Amino acid sequence: MKTFCGRANPTTGAMEWLEEDEDYDYHQEIARSRYADMLHDKDRNTKYYQGIRAAVSRVKERGEKAIVLDIGTGTGLLSMMAASAGADFCYAIEVFRPMANAAVKIVEENGFCDKIKVINKHSTEVTVGPGGDMQCRANILVTELFDTELIGEGALPTYEHAHKYLVEEGCEAVPHRARVYVQLVESRRMWSWKKLFPVHVKAEDGEKIIVSPSEMENCPGVPSVCDIQLNQMPPSDFTVLSDVVTMFSVDFSKPVRSASTHYRVELEPVKSGKAQVVLSWWDIDMDPSGMINCTMAPYWVKPTSASQWRDHWMQCVYFLPREEPVLQGEKVSLTACRDAYSVWYKLQKARGKEENKADVHVESPVCRCQAHLLWNRPRLGELNDQNRTHQYIKALMTVLHTDSICLCISDGSLLPVLARYLGAKQFFKANHLEDKIKIIEARPELLTPSQLEDKKISVLLGEPFFTTSLLPWHNLYFWYARTAVATHLASNVTVLPQAASLHMMIVEFQDLWRIRSPCGTCEDFDVRIMDDMINNSLNFRESKEAEPHPLWEYPCKSLSDPQEVLTFDFRKTVPQQCLGTEGSVSLLRKGKSHGAVLWMEYHLTAGISVSTGLMDISNEKGNCEWNPHCKQAVYFFSSVIDSETLSDLPSAVTYAINFDPKTGEIAMDFKL
Ligand code: SAH
């Protein structure tokens, strides 16, 4: 079987479809999978184990055989727990073939071959009865099919089917139930991920304000869940408007219905404010009594116990279709609608019961204004960042003249509008602004002199930002575009940014290291086969690469000074030969060198730069503050050096970093 994998080519900015054999997909999936993170989630694992032991005991106490159905067995972990707890037999279902194969090996390695049957099928394809996949229905149903939104990975349809066809009535279920919690908040920061705030531009002829069109003001946005590490959101970035309430719950031991439905709760605001966002998370009770509880609650909800870090389950941010003012003590009614796979919210004034019944239909949010398709949430946050805008305005003021002819190359950029307000006479490529700005729908290399009205460009602008970029240096597409339009540029053209630089720093992560770190054993089960499999996938075609992560969500401390490693001069065209550098970076602090972080800085003009990565190192401990709108590149070292003391620090990490202009990619190698 062949698979087509879409990938943007950083030299052309275009999507290209590469034909890969099926192993390629698997390796990508395994290398970047959350399996390691789940196996490191001690809190989850111990609670599953407790819940499974309790369920097996209850069945045994009734004098029945314990027959377990484990849907989505992954490594086989939960089935091995059940078998150890005394289950008579386990059916371990796994749809993803490489994982099912791994589960077979792991089960064998741990000596459970006679107790666990791994079945490589989707649960809805599993047959029961003589000659079927399962001899009989199970009386214990164990699963871990949840995502941050609880139901996004299809838990509801899977449970619905399992109760109909695969388990006995009155079966035990681990987990036994889930509850979804909500809390209403006001947050300018989170709201800036959905709305475009007015941009104030102080021009010579007075202040101008860029406002978004009304279609965008009234647009409900996009339906996909916004899942983040809410624990990294400081209290100063939001105001709580309501208590935490249970929005809905699901009992997994009874038949489950996946059909679309809605739930409604009344909230009494604890504070007056603008309701903008619903924060949500869930917990699961592993047993009917609720004694074994695993919760995703953020820090301000359960401040006492140190919570487990995990990346496979985070918290959800739901944007209300509109901002609604609420008054302390004046009840409002919050409706959660869900289909089989997702949830969305609506807030209304609380009214009589009868009235409320009438109006149950709440549409799933669908972007009608197009802007939410062009600007994803971090990008909207970036455009709303006033400090950043100010830097661009300052830089534009130094390069623009009344007779400037500007060309802007960036996706969904406000630069043309800013430049226009700041006095540029003529502008190409951007939105609206009548005759002053002209949008050219052409790839840079296909631009014709007539599209530019036979004018030469005096100012070439870019943020740069392109929606297809995955890693920081993919925005170097600006350099390629600049090269492609070279013939249209005046001999004394000003290019803004005039240059970019790649920066690098060695860090110790507080937690992110877990997602790429081998587990060895998990709850005393040997899972090294899984570790090897992930490692093998990471090394597939020697493809060890940097990966993008939004580091504001993943605290780390710097172990070295930040170092500029490469520069890219946008005043010149892209060179033919590679840009390489080798060197070493000194380690200054003790700690575990988990990897290197890389990011780009753009030098708009000689004196004005913006960073898409490091903003600040805040104290002598080396805590880092990262640009909250951008993903940085993380290169995980294959082995970690751990220096407890400064004297056993290796003095430096050596590196070789190479930019290949033919591919637009950056290859790197580090030696500790
Ligand atoms: N049970 C393991 C792994 C959980 S990850 C653990 O707790 O560590 C969930 C796994 O379920 C994934 O491997 C996914 O491929 C699989 N899966 C999801 N829905 C499934 C279904 N309906 N049938 C079979 N496998 C499923």
From TrEMBL:
Gene3D superfamilies assigned to the protein according to its UniProt record, in alphabetical order: Hnrnp arginine n-methyltransferase1, Vaccinia Virus protein VP39
Keywords: Chromatin regulator, Cytoplasm, Differentiation, Methyltransferase, Nucleus, Repeat, S-adenosyl-L-methionine, Transcription, Transcription regulation, Transferase
Full protein name: Protein arginine N-methyltransferase 7
Domain Protein arginine N-methyltransferase, residue spans: 176-345, 499-657
Domain of life, source organism: Eukaryota
InterPro entries linked to this entry: Arg_MeTrfase, MeTrfase_PRMT7, PRMT_dom, SAM-dependent_MTases_sf
One Gene Ontology cellular component annotation held by this UniProt entry: nucleus
A GO biological process held by the record: methylation
Protein's cellular compartments: Cytoplasm; Nucleus
